[in-house]
Amino acid sequence: MTRTPQDALHTAAYVTPAGADWLASASASPRGVQALWAGAPTAAVTLPCGTAFDVISMDALFGRRVVGRLWTDGPGTGPVAARGGRVMLFATPGTAQRLPALLGWEEWGETAPPLLCYGRGDAVTVPPLFPPDPDQPEAAPLEYGARETGARRPAPASPPPCRRRAGWSRRMSASPGCPVPRYCCGPA
């Protein structure tokens, strides 16, 4: 069987056991998330932000430049996922709250493309531990403990970038028909 470059990219996207433990630690019940993944390792799972990680989502082109810059001029980057023309950078909890002020202070607020910041009270759908078989139909994301974790209904389609509204929560998820997010690591 011959492999295409796309096949190599597809099989390179996976989560290490330590990475899976870290992602699961965001849940109120990490063992429950691990049990879901044990039963369905190719399913995406919705997890809350703000405890183990925040997520900064940006346009794919800008995100690729950011990841490349972090690798060449900075400390590198942590986990990165790509989905539907967006790049999701997993960041330290609290980043979603601090980033808008930092961009304003650096006078980048008007020049940077719109960023979506997911922090405490928000939830994101994280990619599966292993990429699904491209020949199999895509599974809907699993939600573990939505009541315990505070996962909420999706917000309106066009939330303002990195801004908070009282009582308003955002959630990034892979809906049926949309590509499931995938992890990538290393320079873009």
Fold and architecture overview:
Residues 16-131 form the DNA primase/polymerase bifunctional N-terminal domain. InterPro entries: DNA_primase/pol_bifunc_N. It comes from Streptomyces antimycoticus. Residues 146-180 are annotated as: Disordered. The chain is of the alpha+beta class and 188 residues long. It has one domain (5-184). It has a five-stranded antiparallel sheet. Strands 7-1-6-8 form a four-stranded mixed sheet, covered by helices on one side. Helix 2 crosses helix 3. It is 29% helix and 18% strand. It contains six helices and nine strands. The protein has helices at 5-12, 17-24, 30-39, 60-73, 95-105, 146-149; strands spanning 45-48, 54-59, 80-83, 86-91, 116-118, 123-126, 142-143, 171-172, 182-184.
Largest β-sheet summary:
5 strands, antiparallel
Task: Give me the Rg, rounded.
Answer: 16 Å
How many domains? The number is 1
Please give the alpha-carbon distance between the first and last residues.
Answer: 28 Å
How much of the sequence lies in strands comes to 15-25%
Helix/strand-derived class?
Answer: alpha+beta
